[in-house]
Amino acid sequence: MKRHLISAADLSRDDALLILDTADELAKISERSIKKLPTLRGRTVVNLFFEDSTRTRISFEAAAKRLSADVINFSAKGSSVSKGESLKDTALTLEAMGADAVVIRHGASGAPHRLASWVRGSVVNAGDGTHEHPTQALLDAFTMRRRLGSLDGRRVTIVGDILHSRVARSNVLLLATLGAEVTLVAPPTLLPVTVDSWPCEVSYDLDAVLPKSDVVMMLRVQRERMNAAFFPTEREYSRRYGLDRDRFARLRGETIVMHPGPMNRGMEIAADVADSPRSTIVEQVANGVTTRMAVLYLLLGGADLGGEIQ
Ligand code: NCD
After folding, report:
1. Residue 135: active-site member
2. Ligand 1 binding residues, C-beta < 6 A
């Protein structure tokens, strides 16, 4: 494995499978009453969040703590960043404190890549602008594997605001590495111009693609990243690209429904669909902790897991 995890493209098929298999082992720990391992004792993990986050930040914190690392949580609000401190100076401060791993979420695509050139520890990208979110793709793959078995030849449909979605980009790359067939469905205005070079298919017709899907992953419409009108009205978007009750009723019995959160209930996904047993939304959150434990464990070169889990 490489020292940093910045893009899903950093992972070979063997790396990705090693992370998923390690997460499977670590999931056993999460089912115990005492969920902690001593593996990263004495190591320091810094969570550096420049953008809002609920599940990702908490998930990385829980993951590091379950491996007994010391965790420092930094959020830009309330720090010297609001006084104009640069990312480089923030990085040098962390370096001086001896961070073994820095988990970074930043509004600018490429920020984790820059950070990696300034710190000695491992950098983990927890979402950079509209670029990538590799641990989300890993936890999604982990969730799919647990529900469906091997991903080879599985058909995954990703629907919605692809243009602004770092989740979509990382998922397309990782799922291609793992042998799944991905189809993106979105209005033409919400697809990146470079999508032709991505390892996936594109469709504008959700109803035609749904019956063939093993997985349907719905994405949030990211209004905070939009500076123009990308579709006429919310109603119109929802009617053409939303997973409502009628569309859900027409899915095959074994098809699962995913969403990385946060959801706009009633817009891209109906509330009943989000809460149905075929939705993996809450499972994705739980799996996020285990998958991030596996990532931190492998990047920081923890001791042999076999000896840790009895
Ligand atoms: C996503 C993100 O931040 O990129 N959420 C997440 O990490 N669970 C998707 C989103 O914000 O819609």
Report:
1. no
2. 55-56, 127, 133, 136, 166-167, 220, 222, 260-261
* Same domain (yes/no): 16, 57: yes
pLDDT in tens, 60-84: 999 999 999 999 998 877 677 767 7
Nearest CA, atom 3, ligand 1:
127
Give the 3-state secondary structure of residue 184. strand
Res 194: pLDDT? 95
Domain count, the chain: 2
Q: Which domain holds residue 253?
A: 134-281
98 lies in the same domain as 211: no
Residue with tokens 């509004």: 107
Closest CA to 123 of 297, 293, 22, 3: 3
Q: Which residues of 76-89 are buried (b: 16+ CB within 10 A; e: fewer)?
A: beeeebeeeeebee
**Which of 44, 56, 130, 143 does the annotation list as catalytic?**
56
Residue 3 lies in a domain: no
170 alpha carbon to ligand 1 midpoint, in Å?
12
Residue 267 sits in the same domain as residue 304: no
Q: In this structure, are 78 and 151 located in the same domain?
A: no
* 212 catalytic residue (yes or no): no
pLDDT digits (tens, 9 = 90+) for 22-64: 999 999 987 888 889 999 999 999 999 999 888 999 999 999 9
> How many residues are listed for the chain in this entry?
310
- Residue 201 forms part of a structural domain: yes
